[in-house]
Amino acid sequence: MRKYILIIVVVLCSFTSSISQTKKNAAFDPFLDTLEHRTFKYFWECVDSKTGLSPDRHPTKAFSSITAIGYSLTAYGIGAERNYITREQAADRVKTTLKYLWNLPQGTSSMNDAGYRGFYYHFLKYETGTRFAPDVDLSSIDTAWLMLGILFAQSYFDRNNDVEKEIRSLADSLYRRVEWNWMQPRPPLVTMGWYPEKGYHNLDYGWNGFDEASALYFLAIGSPTHAIDPAAWKEYPERFQWVKKYGYEYIDFDVLFWNQFTECWYDMRGIQDKCVKEKGVDYFENARRATYANRAYCIENPKKNKGYSDLFWGISASDGPPDGKKVIDGVEIQFISYGARGCSKNYWFDDGTITPYAAGGSLPMAPEICLPTLKAIREQIPGMWTEYGFKDAFNRTYITEETPHGWVDKDYLGLDQGPIIIMAENYRNGLVWETMKKNPYIVKGLQRAGFTGGWLDGKK
Prior knowledge:
The protein starts with a helix and ends in a 12-residue tail after the last helix. By secondary structure, the chain is an alpha+beta fold. The strands form ten sheets. The chain has a three-stranded antiparallel β-sheet. A three-stranded antiparallel β-sheet has the order 17-20-21, with no helix packed on it. The radius of gyration is 22 Å and the shape is globular. The protein has two domains: 46-231 and 430-460, Glycosyltransferase (Alpha/alpha barrel), CATH 1.50.10.140; 240-411, Glycoside hydrolase 144 (GH144) (Glycosyltransferase). The protein has 16 helices and 22 strands. A hairpin with a 4-residue loop joins strand 15 (342-343) and strand 16.
């Protein structure tokens, strides 16, 4: 019996070692460098070099997205490390961006300001940097993504020269200016946004369950000037719902990117709060399981969409075919041009649209399934792999006279390009994660929220 047990142990160790080596080898796959380089060019060439305003999408040009600016600020450091540009070029672009943001007007006017109390409007006009339209809110979550790019720049540009000193100073001022505690009409939770015309987004609703707002709470709790009570993080996870689907137990989520955006900047490996510690996992492992569950759903394909498989999977928030209902193969399907796609207990919408960043944003968590999918999309979906990497989405169910082989997006989205380049870099060498660990505001926010263990141990 002992002989057989020993054989099983040896086989299992060999199998685990093989998987580990496969992941290690994959990090040096030349495809990843091409993917990063092309995606980087989106943030370098499509951004206004005089202001740093980043496009929400390209080639369709409508407005700048502050989330895309946050991703741009992070991409510049990656570009410098990869020698796509020089460090000096990256620093000049970052300084231009931060200086422009700092000098934009903050106030309560309807359309003549870029923000208020340190927050910024979700979308800004290219011409003036001010609020794009009356229905655009002063966004708490999009300000958080912007601030993460700003704090990355603060920690990455650490040299003793005038340009990098100014970057650090501007970054510090921008973060300290955000009045996180003002965005709490019903504490301890943070509300979604505010309008000068009608006040807070919705007095009955805040960020209050598993969603993309984890980073928002960490930043708000860690603020040295306008911090919110750490009790906010205690209440936030209390609303999480654990489910077991497709053989994986994880926190239920409506949209896959909820598991990805925060982890672009925060290394959640080995650190835990009470919520995940009780389950014996961390948020990184939770995101890995969520990724596998998303793939398993597409393989099961309950709506019988065309083209779903073990290689073609990945539903999340993204562009999609034109809005409206169409009858395809005798079945009426509702399509949406942009929206959230997911398969949770409380939310289910799936019109056959796959987005590459669903796999790209989970590269560090599950490279063994994400990398083959990205390569398959590049090789088998004409029109998806072009100058700036991947177009935002495709749909092989949407068969019409104009799209006989299915729909392919015409645009790239800055919101979705960001996770691709950042997570590819984190998978390859952990650059963004390691840089953010140097930032005292990032560390303090996690500690105040109750995280312990792993790389946080020993941090002051």
